[in-house]
Write a structure and sequence with these properties.
Layout (H helix, E strand, L loop, with lengths): L1 E8 L8 E6 L2 E7 L5 E6 L5 E3 L1 E6 L18 H11 L5 H17 L2 E9 L6 H13 L4 E7 L10 H11 L3 E2 L9 H18 L2 E6 L9 H11 L6 E5 L8 H14 L2 E4 L1 H7 L15 H6 L4 E3 L16 H11 L5 H10 L2 H7 L14 E4 L4 H7 L3 E6 L2 E5 L5 E2 L8 E2 L9
Parallel strand pairs: 1-4, 6-7, 7-8, 8-9, 9-10, 10-11, 11-12, 12-13
Antiparallel strand pairs: 1-2, 2-3, 5-14, 14-15, 15-16, 17-18
Helix pairs in contact: 2-3, 5-6, 6-7, 10-11
The structure holds fe (ii) ion.
């Protein structure tokens, strides 16, 4: 007898009327019209069942701290970093853990069951590292939290930066991070990329570096990152995050750069909500969008994912852990409004992000974890359009969150009594 049988599901790839059979927390069969006895049967009614959402770029040590000790008035990245520097000495581990756990509750409710979070390693006490390692342990039953050692103040620029980062890795932090554009010079930035990739290669770690998060068209750290990934044999194990300067780069240079990134197997993460907010702040008009060249990277064969980056912190006052909101902003900023473009934006917060994190057991194939989301939408395009309600969120075959369907009651003469914003489809 099966533990769970989900019927009449539509899958992200367009297959409809599909059944998903679950046993011992794993998907054992996916087929049309499957009938088998199960302890629990759920009729999806033609709605979309997707693998859970994945956020490959977040800062959980800062989340939900908006207004502490003040808000970012200029809205720039640099004031955000300065503000975080004011907040850091005031941080208490208990409060940080409490905020992070509250955010993880929001995430699970939104079907977001895997997060890669950077954690600041600049402070010699490693208070935030210890706190997020504790959060990782606490949420493990319901959320995969992967941590990146992130030297926010510059691994070379801040005293003890290299030692603090290595100690964070010793404690169990999973991924090597960096911030080359915040080092003192372009040369120091390049040196930091080389050093950090070597540390990752020695220790068998993945790399995820904040890279060229500026409007500077001459910032070249993604080029160095791609070079080091290739030199050290880190194909498929390295990610460049943000890469906003690519928006402002010369087109000829980008035509050389894109194949280099693709050949090195470096993934790129854009953070649409934050890139559209922080970048272009020094412009008058026209104002640059700042997000990296998403469709062009995808067309070149680069794995591109979207991250949330920030929720209610020194850099960004909005957000609720909703990766469909991230995809929604991403397709607007990148003008990826074709059907294929919108579906690619859905992939950017699901399968592509899972690839960045090297998540095992991700997907809707037999053998994958039964960790998926039933959405109040009929396909990925509708899911993004509506930022659709996550009716049920499953983790290893068990429901971990439920939200009632979003339906507006209407009181209009001669009209239907309710709407859920899903138009009647042609032929139906
Ligand atoms: Fe970031």
């Amino acid at each position: 007898m099966l533990d769970l049988l989900l019927t009449h599901a539509t899958l992200p790839d367009g297959r409809s009327d599909m059944s998903i059979a679950v046993q011992d927390g794993r998907i054992i069969e996916v087929a049309a019209g499957l009938a088998a006895p199960a302890h629990e049967t759920l009729d999806a009614g033609g709605l979309l069942v997707s693998p859970h959402f994945v956020d490959p770029h977040f800062h959980m040590d800062a989340t939900l701290s908006y207004g502490l000790p003040r808000v970012n008035e200029s809205g720039t990245l640099l004031e955000g970093i300065a503000l975080w520097g004011e907040l850091k000495p005031l941080l208490k581990a208990e409060a940080l853990i409490e905020r992070a756990l509250a955010y993880c509750d929001w995430a699970v409710a939104k079907g977001l069951l895997a997060i890669r979070s950077h954690v600041d390693t600049s402070d010699a006490s490693l208070l935030a590292v210890d706190a997020l390692l504790e959060v990782k342990r606490l949420v493990a039953p319901y959320l995969d939290l992967q941590l990146v050692a992130f030297p926010q103040d510059g691994v070379l620029r801040s005293p003890g930066g290299v030692d603090n980062l290595k100690r964070a890795l010793d404690k169990g932090v999973d991924v090597v991070g960096g911030i080359p554009h915040f080092e003192r010079t372009m040369a120091d930035g390049a040196a930091s990329v080389k050093l950090l990739c070597e540390i990752a290669a020695e220790r068998g770690k993945l790399v995820d570096m904040h890279c060229d998060e500026s409007d500077d068209p001459l910032s070249r750290h993604i080029e160095t990152l791609a070079f080091e990934a290739q030199r050290l044999g880190l194909h498929g194990r390295v990610t460049g995050s943000h890469c906003t300067s690519m928006h402002s780069m010369d087109n000829y240079y980008v035509s050389k750069l894109l194949p280099l990134i693709a050949q090195s197997g470096v993934s790129v993460i854009a953070n649409p909500l934050i890139n559209i907010t922080l970048q272009g702040r020094h412009d008058t008009y026209p104002k640059r969008r700042g997000m990296t060249r998403v469709p062009e990277l995808m067309a070149a064969g680069v794995n591109v994912a979207f991250g949330h980056d920030c929720v209610m912190d020194p850099w960004y006052g909005m957000g609720s852990g909703d990766m469909l909101e991230v995809a929604h902003m991403g397709l607007h900023v990148a003008q990826m409004t074709s059907q294929a473009g919108i579906r690619s934006c859905f992939d950017a917060v699901t399968a592509n992000a899972a690839k960045v994190m090297h998540l095992d057991g991700y997907g809707l194939e037999p053998g994958c974890d039964a960790s998926f989301v039933l959405l109040q939408a009929r396909d990925p395009v509708e899911a993004i359009r509506l930022r659709a309600t996550r009716l049920k969120v499953f983790r290893l075959g068990k429901v971990v969150a439920e939200t009632p369907a979003a339906t507006a009651a209407l009181h209009l003469p001669g009209r239907a009594p309710a709407t859920s914003f899903m138009p009647v489809r042609a032929g139906k």
